[in-house]
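Re: that chain you flagged

S.,

Sorry for the slow reply, it's been a week of failed gels. I finally had a moment to sit down with the sequence you sent. For the record, here it is as I used it:
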Amino acid sequence: MRDSTTEATRAVVAGYVKALQHGMYGRGAYQSSDLGEVDFAAVAAIIALRVERHLNEGLARSREEVAGIVADFRDLARDPARKDLAWRYGVGPDVLDPKLRTAEFGNWLQAEVLPAAARR
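Prediction finished late last night. Pasting the structure tokens below so you have them in one place:
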């Protein structure tokens, strides 16, 4: 449960980043990134909308379990210092600490996006 929810979240984020990179560099040309810019309230909302999918894919065993996951992510959105929830879902300081979370993205902007924009 912990790993699949975390991976689903990262996949959604990575999809948006890939779309942005395709727009900047052309289809199929993008830099690999493990970006941790995650809005836990949005994650909770997405999971709440996909209860059946979570059940069908075996990511949870009951509606109550999904409701608990949703509640946990809402709580984490309200209080990122909740180490118990961060540990439960495999969320590390690279996601919780804003400086660490945005460092790779900032480096990518500085190294790739801004120079490309300046050349246009």
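What I noticed first: The mean pLDDT is 78.

Talk soon,
D.
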